[in-house]
Amino acid sequence: MSERTLRLAGGDVAYPAAALCVGVALWWGLAVLAEIPSFLLPTPDAVLARLAGNPELYLVNALHTLEKVVYGGAIGIAAGIVLAVFVASVPWFRRAVYPYLVTVRVLPKLAIAPLLLIYLGTGTATAIVFVALITFFPLVLNTAAGLDRTPSTHHDLLRSVRAGPIARLVYVDVPYAIPDVFAGLKQSVTLAVVGAVVAEWVVADSGLGFLILMGSENVRPDVMLAALAVLLVVGLALYGLVVLVQRRVHARLGLEDVA
Fold first, then answer.
1. What is the CATH number of the domain that holds 46?
2. What are phi and psi of 192, to 5 degrees?
3. This prediction's pTM
4. What are phi and psi of 38, to 5 degrees?
5. Is the dihedral of CA 186, 189, 193, 199 positive or negative?
6. Tell me: the pLDDT tens digits for 42-92?
7. How many folded domains does the chain comprise?
8. Do 172 and 154 meet the contact criterion of CB atoms below 8 Å apart?
9. CB–CB of 181/96 below 8 Å?
């Protein structure tokens, strides 16, 4: 691992950690100096006490949320990559479906949840489908755009040696598309966490989102903030995993380190 990569990795940890410390200090100062009642804004130590008082509650619900994120995200990402290859490889298919992919992406995904509730009912399976839909569109559009970045001279060279479409895809198109694929993955991973929480509000009866909803209904901001803290850790861990894999792939392909 190069010195620049180590420096980038250190910055990825140090800067967010510093921002978190500043944010917690401001939160603490606001709650104490403004004398805000604990039922409106509990202090950070009160939230930590809530986490420490019943860690199993948050761990179990975090695992339920992570299950929806992993399964739904995996389905959405796999489907997005497959469709992106078809969109980039088949011109008539691209002209037929690409405008709809762009249009559907800008629609509010929250509007889909009630429809899934009608058609699929409540439960984990419905939440997984919702997460899959949320993660699908960023990846298919970014991957398709990346697969189009290959210079036409490279394709001409491959045709001159009679290379097939699979060889062109694997050895030329995919390396050029890697930055866009990971850009889509970063969006999909973060949206998967958001989608899981929204699904737990509407169609599920477990998970951190459901816990936040219950805390809201019972006016328990300490429960809500504790669940949000755990959710933040889950989201950062998943995003960091994607960045780590991206750096490894870039190093393997001789691309620039991720800034």
1. 1.10.3720.10
2. -65, -40
3. 0.82
4. -65, -25
5. positive
6. 888 888 988 888 889 999 999 999 999 999 999 999 999 999 988 888 888
7. 2
8. yes
9. no
